[in-house]
Automatic annotation (TrEMBL):
Coiled-coil intervals, chain numbering: 69-110
Domain Nephrocystin 3 helical: 631-780
Domain Nephrocystin 3-like N-terminal: 481-596
GO biological process: Wnt signaling pathway
Stated name of the protein: Nephrocystin-3
Pfam families with a match to the protein in the record: NPHP3, NPHP3_hel, NPHP3_N, TPR_10, TPR_12, TPR_NPHP3
Keywords attached to this entry: Cell projection, Cilium, Coiled coil, Repeat, TPR repeat, Wnt signaling pathway
UniProt repeat feature TPR, residue ranges: 1040-1073, 1082-1115, 1166-1199, 1208-1241
The keyword Coiled coil is annotated on this UniProt entry: yes
Length: 1269
């Protein structure tokens, strides 16, 4: 502790002083004890000094302390000031930091806004570029449309090759304004303008341009862009052959659609029916033919995806025999001196005009039997070219052989098989399994379904429905599907089919796609197959379509894109009609794209049963089909009966009307069934009228048929036939019925099938017997199996399985087996046999090549086998097939390996795909020459695999090796070479080797262009020969039109001499038939003049144009497009011959016509003024040319803008004129402005405008349109 003096008080606070005072003893004071123990002696000096020294030290310490205290207080005050100052500085810096943060946020937002603005600007720039390029893309749309029409015509001609007589009889083509389907009237085949004195095509100072006389911009306008509604368009059509207006194309497309319908009616049936008639004394010939040669003919048809049915029975049923003759494809009759009653019936039927158009074969036994042919029957038959007569034979074996040879030729002609064996290197046909790509038959089946659905006179009340359908189609903007809803038998399919036919006829520019669904288990109910078929039809609308994918997911994803792409190109848009979509398998899953917004130019119409419609579809616009009232029932009934000239008694009519009062009987189907029963049978109606629904009505009708037709020996056969139809997937063929029912005879089958078809219980669908209506199938199923018929169904399934299984051999697997057997095995639940069936490589190949890979995968998923195990199983099966000698040849085994490799490659199982493709290559190199084209094909498949694998170096080497093989085998100008070059270019493109890929791509394109005309000639060669044979027959307007079209086609092949001969023959024939002033004659005159114009034979073209102009002025208005085009082309011919005095009034007239049609400020008027000014300049009439130039320039600037290329061309022309007038200053100023416009356009588009004068020498205009550079 310190002393007392160590604490001082200041303001009542005790403060500690850090300096302690020394103890007293240390100040010189004595000890206390010494003082106390002594006797005090007075005070000493020493003690007094001690006290004084102590006080002084205290004072000093106090002063020091006070100074110290004050110093520290000052320090504290200073530190407090600094602290306060630092706090203020901190606050200031914090506020500055907040301000900087706000500024940073603001700058970041401004940066984001600027970026977004940049993106919007780029989007606007892209939109502007798209709008700017829209004009230049128009010509491509027109070219593709024209080429598509030509391709359709070529396809029709090729498919109808074997139906020449029928085609000629059914060809009803009407010209719209005398317009050919191929060649627009009034057009010329080429425009090659002579160079004027103002043109210097090789000089940079060549300013002269005549935009209306062949400029490429003018050729880009679609032909349907005509009239004042396109008053703001910048495009002009001035080239020959480009003057087709919208009405002309509509007429041409309508005629083309008519031809397509006729083609489908002829070729849609895949069942070839041969009706054979022979007297009983010639049964030996028939027996040999049936036993030895019919199987060969069946195999021939099966290889082409068709079936053959030989009908021959001796029973005497005149009506049945008559119907069989009418429905047969080929007729065969053995004739002798004595004909029995049945043969007489057949011969009389053959004499009818309706059957004599079919191929007919007549066989006479010997020379004595010729008398039958020389009689009245023979004379009538001899008048027709399609009758083949075998005058004599010496033995039954020879007769059978001669008949086989004749039918072989007829069937090959009908099937479209060339006489020369097809080159196996250029086809993927696998003859081991007897099959080809059969996708076309899916289209044929749908066409037949449309024809059957519309085959009714009942259209009562459909007008109001038609109006709603038309309003839906014509509505603007994107629109959801229209849902047609009704009960069973309410006429949904009938309404859609009738409306589709009307739409095709009234709106030929519109692409109409349709799909009708049969029962839920049929192939038509497969949504993936439907999407694949419709995608294929959409792809046909473009040139060089891509390969159709086998991936179901990709198909579903790409289909809406194809709809949008094609709809935007089609002038009338696209209409998609889907009937009974509620029967699709997993409809809601695979038709999700219907819920998404549809393309603007696409309209979708679907129909469903009101009880099975999913809830998600009910939000769409709905058209509800109403039930029939009493008056409507009566009209429908009389409409159906009057078509067969049957009058209904009042009693029966009252019975029917009184019965049709409930929901199930007030439908069109119910009334049609009642009428069909009255037409076919004459039994009492009371039994039928006791039925309340269509299903019950079908059951009652079948019961009556059993009562009328079944005898004890045929008891139960009608139900048995119907059972087979119920259990099968797509129906059943008549050949199969004979194999399944041993006691079945033609005598019983034909009348029963006739009545079943007449009463709308069954129908013939692509040669297969199936139910005519969904209600018929439900009624038959209830009648034959009921609620407890599962065991019967299993028995029937097993019978069908056993029947089809016996044909699981190479060369015997048909499309019917592929359709039925796997599906039946799955329904029966036999997994082992299903797996065995799928591992049959013929079944596999049939399914894969027909585009049904998704169905194949569905079967494997049902078996719970993954893709890897499936691939291993298929490769093992292929090896087993290879080891089983004698079943097939090595090239066919190689084909199987290749198909397997392609299938696994499509599934992206690259490791598993490699072994089969390598094995295919090994087999072909061993069995064939190493340089054989089939080896090249194997190399190509391997290269594709490695390219997909990313092994580009290996793929490149394989592609090059395949290319070398193709070049050695076919030469350098072959389609296979072009494909291989293109594949190699695509490979380089994937590696970003664009400098290497681009020359290859150009080479491939060049080869394709050169061989295109050659391919067209080869495809049309046989058809052309047939048409030339027709040309030797009687003259007719249709034949004259055909000759005119042939002239166009030969011109497209650059065969001008042949084209000229056809044009002249068409002209001569029309003069003889129609007279010298007929409007069609002007078309032939125009086309022939166009050909002469293209050959620069202007002296010959001039009188033809003049005569065509006179004819059209007599029939058409002077302001019509046809007259205007003739005037334009004639004026060009005059100008090319320097006949300016004749050309000038025509050019003036052309200006007046355009002013009247489009208005005085339309760009087409400016183009005509430029043409007139050019003519004035060529005559040195500068004072007349200058106002025309200035007026045209003003119109271009007002309508197109001051920086349009048309303005630049006009300025250049005007500059040249000023230069010729020695006004160099004005010429330089005008030329400078034109150059600035051209350079700005070139800088913007990265394209340099052509300096070649549009009035200079150019290629043929029609070629520029079809093959633009």
């Amino acid at each position: 502790m310190g002393t007392v003096g160590s604490f001082l008080r200041s303001n009542d606070d005790v403060q500690h002083i850090p300096i302690e005072m020394k103890p007293r003893g240390k100040l010189g004071l004595g000890r206390v004890g010494s003082i106390v123990g002594r006797k005090p002696k007075g005070g000493s000096l020493r003690s007094a000094l001690s006290i004084e020294l102590e006080n002084a030290e205290t004072e000093r310490i106090k002063r020091e302390f006070e100074m110290y205290r004050l110093d520290k207080e000052n320090d504290i005050a200073n530190w407090l000031k600094k602290e306060k100052k630092l706090e203020q500085e901190n606050k200031r810096m914090r506020s500055e930091l907040l301000a900087l943060q706000k500024m940073c946020t603001k700058l970041r937002n401004e940066r984001d806004a600027a970026f977004q603005a940049e993106q919007r600007a780029l989007a606007r720039a892209a939109s502007f570029e798209c709008d700017r390029d829209k004009v230049q893309r128009r010509f491509k749309i027109y070219r593709e449309t024209a080429e598509f029409e030509l391709q359709n015509v070529l396809r029709d001609r090729r498919n109808l090759e074997n139906k020449v007589t029928k085609y000629a009889a059914g060809l009803m083509i009407e010209d719209g304004d005398s317009t050919s389907r191929f060649l627009p009237d009034g057009g010329t085949l080429g425009e090659k303008s002579t160079a004027s004195k103002y043109v210097c095509t090789n000089n940079q100072g060549d300013w002269w341009s005549e935009p209306s006389l062949g400029s490429s911009i003018q050729l880009h306008q679609p032909t349907y862009l005509r009239g004042p509604e396109f008053a703001l368009t910048i495009m002009e059509l001035e080239g020959p052959f480009t003057n087709v207006n919208k009405e002309d194309w509509s007429c041409a497309l309508a005629n083309l659609n008519q031809n397509k319908d006729k083609q489908l009616n002829i070729n849609v049936n895949r069942l070839m029916r041969i009706y054979l008639s022979a007297p009983r004394n010639m049964s030996h010939e028939v027996h040999i033919f049936v036993k030895e040669y019919v199987p060969v003919l069946k195999s021939l048809c099966e290889k082409e995806g068709r079936s053959l049915l030989l009908i021959h029975y001796l029973e005497r049923h005149q009506n049945s025999r008559q119907k069989q003759i009418e429905t047969s494809s080929v007729l065969v009759a053995f004739l002798g001196q004595s004909l029995d009653g049945e043969s007489c019936i057949d011969v009389k039927a053959l004499m009818k005009d309706t059957t004599i158009t079919k191929p007919t074969v007549l066989l006479c036994k010997n020379q004595e039997d010729k008398c039958v042919y020389e009689n009245e029957i023979g004379v009538k038959l001899k008048e027709f070219n399609n009758v083949t007569v075998i005058p004599e034979y010496h033995s039954p074996q020879q007769a059978a052989e001669l008949l086989y040879n004749t039918l072989d030729k007829i069937l090959k002609n009908d099937l479209g098989i060339d006489k020369v064996k097809p080159d196996p290197e250029q086809t993927d046909i696998n003859y081991m399994c007897g099959g080809i790509l059969w996708d076309i038959n899916y289209d044929n089946e749908q066409a037949e379904a449309l024809a059957y659905a519309s085959d009714s006179t009942c259209q009562l009340g459909f007008d109001k429905y038609y109006e709603k359908l038309n309003n839906h189609v014509s509505a603007a903007g994107p629109y959801p599907p229209l849902l047609i809803m009704g009960t069973s038998g309410s006429g949904r399919s009938l309404l859609l089919s009738k409306w589709v036919e009307q739409q095709k006829e009234k709106n030929p520019n519109c692409l109409v796609l349709y799909h009708f669904v049969d029962k839920e288990s049929s192939v038509s109910a497969d949504p993936i197959l439907m999407i694949r078929r419709l995608s294929s039809q959409l792809m046909q609308q473009i040139n060089n379509p891509p390969v159709l994918s086998n991936d179901s997911t990709r198909l579903v994803e790409d289909f809406p894109r194809w709809l949008e792409k094609i709809s935007s190109k089609s002038p009338g848009g696209t209409i998609l009609v889907l009937d009974s979509i509620d029967r699709f398998q997993q409809a809601e899953l695979h038709l999700k794209w219907l819920l998404d917004p549809l393309p603007v130019d696409t309209r979708v119409i679907v129909s469903v049963h009101e009880h099975t419609c999913p809830q998600v579809w009910r939000s769409w616009p709905t058209l509800q089909l109403e039930l029939l009232d009493t008056k409507s029932v009566q009209e429908v009934l009389w409409s159906e009966l009057s078509a067969h000239e049957i009058i209904l008694t009042n009693v029966n009519e009252s019975k029917i009307l009184s019965r049709c009062q409930n929901l199930g009987s007030c439908t069109p189907l119910y009334i049609i069934l009642i009428a069909a029963y009255i037409i076919s049978l004459s039994s009492d109606l009371n039994i039928l009228l006791s039925s309340l629904t269509c299903e019950q009505l079908y059951i009652s009708m079948i019961g009556l048929l059993e009562r009328d037709f079944e005898t004890p020996e045929h008891e139960g056969m009608i139900k048995l036939i119907l059972k087979y139809m119920c259990v099968s997937r797509n129906g059943i063929e008549e050949n199969e019925l004979f194999g399944l029912i041993p006691d079945l005879t033609w005598m019983f089958l034909i009348p029963v099938l006739d009545v079943l078809a007449t009463t709308h219980i069954i129908k013939y669908h692509s040669g297969v017997l199936t139910f005519a209506h969904h209600a018929a199938m439900k009624g038959v199923n209830e009648l034959c199996f009921g609620s407890s018929g599962s065991e019967q169904i299993l028995d029937i399934q097993q019978e069908l399985i056993d029947y089809h299984t016996q044909y699981l051999l190479p060369g015997s697997v048909t499309c019917r087996i592929v359709d039925e057997l796997p599906w039946l095995l799955r329904q029966a639940g036999d997994r082992n046999k299903l797996q065995e069936c799928l591992l049959n490589l013929c079944i596999f190949q049939r399914l894969y090549t027909r585009g049904r890979a998704s169905e194949l995968l569905t079967y494997w998923q049902y078996l719970d086998i993954d893709k890897n195990k499936m691939a291993t199983s298929y490769f093992t099966s292929a090896k087993q097939t290879e080891e089983e000698k004698g079943l097939s040849t090595l090239p066919l085994i190689a084909d199987l390996y290749e198909t397997l490799g392609r299938f696994l490659n499509d599934l992206v199982l690259l490791n598993q795909a490699l072994p089969p493709l390598q094995r295919a290559l090994e087999i072909r190199e061993t069995a064939l020459d190493p340089d054989h084209p089939m080896v090249g094909r194997a190399l190509h498949q391997l290269a594709r695999l490695h390219a997909q694998w990313g092994k580009y170096s290996i793929a490149e080497a394989l592609f090059k090796q395949a290319l070398e093989i193709y070049e050695n085998a076919y030469g350098f100008e072959h389609e296979m070479v072009a494909k291989e070059v293109e594949s190699l270019a695509n490979l380089y493109q994937k590696q970003n080797k664009h400098d290497v890929a681009e020359p290859l791509r150009k080479r491939a394109l060049s080869i394709k262009r050169r061989i295109k005309s050659i391919q067209n000639v080869s495809k049309l060669q046989r058809r052309t020969l047939h048409l030339e044979e027709l040309a030797l027959g009687p003259e007719s307007p249709d034949l004259a039109r055909t000759l005119n079209e042939l002239g166009v086609l030969y011109y497209l092949q650059n065969d001008w001499e042949t084209s000229e001969s056809f044009f002249k023959r068409s002209l001569e024939m029309r003069e003889n038939l129609l007279g010298k002033d007929h409007l069609d004659l002007a078309q032939s005159l125009n086309n022939l003049a166009a050909l002469f114009n293209d050959k620069k034979m202007y002296d010959k073209a001039e009188p033809l144009y003049e005569r065509a102009l006179q004819i059209r002025l007599k029939h058409l208005s002077p302001d019509s497009a046809s007259v205007s085009n003739i005037i334009r082309h004639l004026s060009m011919v005059y100008r090319k011959q320097n006949k300016f005095e004749k050309a000038e009034p025509l050019y003036i007239q052309g200006v007046e016509i355009r002013e009247k049609c489009f208005g005085v400020n339309h760009p087409s008027v400016a183009t005509a003024l430029v043409n007139l000014a050019v003519l004035y300049s060529q005559q040195n009439k500068y004072h007349e040319a200058e106002p025309a130039y200035e007026k045209a320039l003003k119109i271009y600037e007002d309508s197109l803008g001051s920086h349009n290329p048309r303005v630049a061309e006009t300025l250049r022309n005007l500059a040249v004129m000023k230069y010729e007038q020695k006004d160099f200053e004005t010429a330089a100023r005008l030329y400078k402005r034109a150059t600035e416009i051209k350079e700005s356009e070139a800088n913007y588009t990265n394209k340099v405008l052509s300096r070649r004068s549009s009035s200079g020498e150019t290629n043929s205009t029609i070629k520029n349109i079809l093959h633009p550079s």
